[in-house]
Specification:
The protein is α+β, with helices and mostly antiparallel strands and about 300 residues long. It has helices spanning about 5-10, 20-25, 25-35, 95-100, 110-115, 120-135, 215-225, 275-285, 295-305, and strands at about 40-45, 45-50, 55, 60, 75-80, 85-90, 105-110, 150, 155-160, 165, 170-180, 185-190, 205, 230-240, 245-255, 265-275.
Amino acid sequence: MTLDPAGLVTYANGRLDRAARLRRDPVRLQTALTAGQTEIIPLWRDRCLVADGAVVRLGGGDGVWLPATVDAGPFFLGLDGTRPVFAVDLSGLPETEALRAAGADRTRDVRELVQRLDPAEAALLGYARGLCYWHRHQRFCATCGQPTRLTEGGAARECPGCRRQLFPQISPAVIMLVELPGDPARCLLGRHAGADRDSFALLAGFLEVGESLEDAVRREAFEEAGVVVDSVRYVASQPWPFPSGLMVGFFARAGSEETRVDGEELLEARWFSRAELRARRAARGRLGNPDSIDRLLLETWLDAEPAGE
């Protein structure tokens, strides 16, 4: 199967140099923050600030972060070439004040904007969103309860009491295309609770303690759809900052076509041939979610056998 993750995995393939040495130097970071070429990306409660349809980028030294809460940043994201890029979280302000401070006219979730963003910009905004969310939810030490403070330009936090270091935690999840070999080969899609009656998607689920990724694929396929998987193959991964996930994509092979849905997460499970999926794609204009790795899995599976063969 031909894979092109760069073309179909959104929020990945960012071009920033995360510049670990620079972020550990407070003096150089402060200089970078006020430089004329510096860009600062303001967010408000996980939403981008937008003016005239474009995501707001502020210049170094604009000071938009000053009226925000003490944990608002700025957070150093990295270098775009030689240009330092920071994010600032205005969530401590009322929305109207955040808009005024940033010179914006509305807030929008990055997922609403992603189809018209350059891939590198989508990756940057996802990165900024995830980092701001993490800082907002790590203000106190889970060990001793004291307020934490940011370090390394926002790449970490530290408790001044017990000296515990905190780093952004990622929640891995698996998403799988389960194939049933045969003539024709078919793949498994499920209708999840709350979805429309004709809305089907790949199976997915979070990794549990003590599992490998492959274990999670097998467990989710069996728990949700009653399908026993006999082989699992890694395809690609995707940052999923909603709020702090990593989607890991797999192809899996089913041992039989028997299904048994759990009736809770999954209400229906159906096997689809390539011809059926191509017909659904033609009718709907696409397969999968516009910004999800499920597109890569579905399109790659379809491309494994050209139409008409």
